[in-house]
């Protein structure tokens, strides 16, 4: 690494790099039987297991995780826990205009329910209801933010437009030209601790958890189904798949979801002088407004987590631990960090990692059933699943157990997104879209013909 701030950076996930991480549960060895098997120990799977037991305490639930709980996106993210179920209210209004009021209300209820679970079960995950600041770093973005503010106000979402001085009073960067403040729609969490806390709650509710237990095959068997693992087999009446962007057990997921690598850096803790040099008293999470955006926040111990920008797709939906180290992306992110905060010159990054986002073409939950309705999947949150995964899990449970649920009437649940084409077209389309988004960022946000066609088709690529 040539940037001096990266000279001693470890390849590893800051959130998971903790001496008090829970010891993984032993892998499944032999045969198991249950009413519901949940596959995946990220937020979707954990919330599914917890909510299943809260709804029906005598339901027998098993959760299997291929690696360790929170080892996927759920332990690697920025920790922005948003009320939005639709990757932003404006994406929601575009895609589901008839349901948007309901989706916004459900989203705020979902965030409140997450806060209540954290409080009721004393989950120590540094939950901070800070809200979120969106900043403009180019003049053309000011007009876009003003338009967003008008559209959000029309939806009764509380946002405030900030001018250059007001935004720099929140957090001081010479690159800022204005901003949009949303004080109610986002909390910050320590995501790994939230996942570990949900794991504990699931165990307390009687869920049996097996880690390092990948399900290799899921098939119907008798009136139920069977999940095969390297060391055993689980017979279950129903299955809920919270496998995100990982190689899917249900082939249909591969049509709708592509794995996209998103990279993150974390600094050493800031000194009191360094904090004073940037302000940030409100500790709000921040995102900038370009297509290729950065997101950043303070951790509980006053480090800065800085991620985003370079969303990378590899041919054939490739996922490989080797792809989590990419020095050129770390260099790029480090350069952008010091362009944003020149006052912090001399600060070092301690951690660099990447994780896989389950990008879908409409940027939000995609749920459905397979295997004659015996298995449900909930995937596709596209980089905004820390909060929405609780809702996705609830929809998955309704698909399995509650056919009369009003959630199943939502267009988001009834209608599938536009699928990605198969390879080799998939790779070509995504690379062309990434290049077109970068071009739009260089040209004051002007979307060229390729993006305009995709916009008309309701297709997108985001993180
Ligand atoms: C770098 C990064 C930053 C992000 N930042 C944010 C953010 O700030 N805010 C936000 O809202 N969202 C963010 N996201 C997205 C968010 O993390 C995800 O939407 C959310 O964690 C999805 O949870 P999940 O349980 O569906 O998936 P995951 O957490 O990926 O869990 C899926 C689990 O399934 C397991 N699995 C897969 N296949 C099998 C199998 N066959 N058998 C057994 N287990 C299996 C995997 O090992 C994995 O643990 C970010 C994501 C990344 C990668």
Describe this structure in words.
The chain has helices at 43-55, 89-95, 100-120, 139-154, 164-170, 191-204, 251-256, 272-278, 327-340, 388-401, 411-414, 425-442, 449-457, and strands spanning 10-11, 30-39, 61-64, 80-82, 132-136, 160-163, 178-182, 186-188, 208-210, 217-221, 224-229, 232-241, 258-267, 285-288, 294-298, 304-308, 349-359, 366-370, 375-379. It has 2 domains: 1-126 and 190-265 and 296-420, FAD/NAD(P)-binding domain (3-Layer(bba) Sandwich), CATH 3.50.50.60; 425-457. The chain starts with 9 loop residues before the first strand and ends in a 6-residue tail after the last helix. It is of the alpha/beta class and 463 residues long. The strands form 3 sheets. Strands 1-17-13-16-15-14-5-7-6 form a 9-stranded mixed β-sheet. Strands 2, 3, 9, 10, 11, 12, 18 and 19 form an 8-stranded mixed β-sheet that branches. The model has no long low-confidence stretch (mean pLDDT 96). It binds flavin-adenine dinucleotide. Residues 39-45, 64-67, 71-74, 76-80, 82, 214-215, 242-244, 246, 249, 262, 264, 295, 307, 355-357, 381, 383-387, 389 line the site of flavin-adenine dinucleotide (FAD).
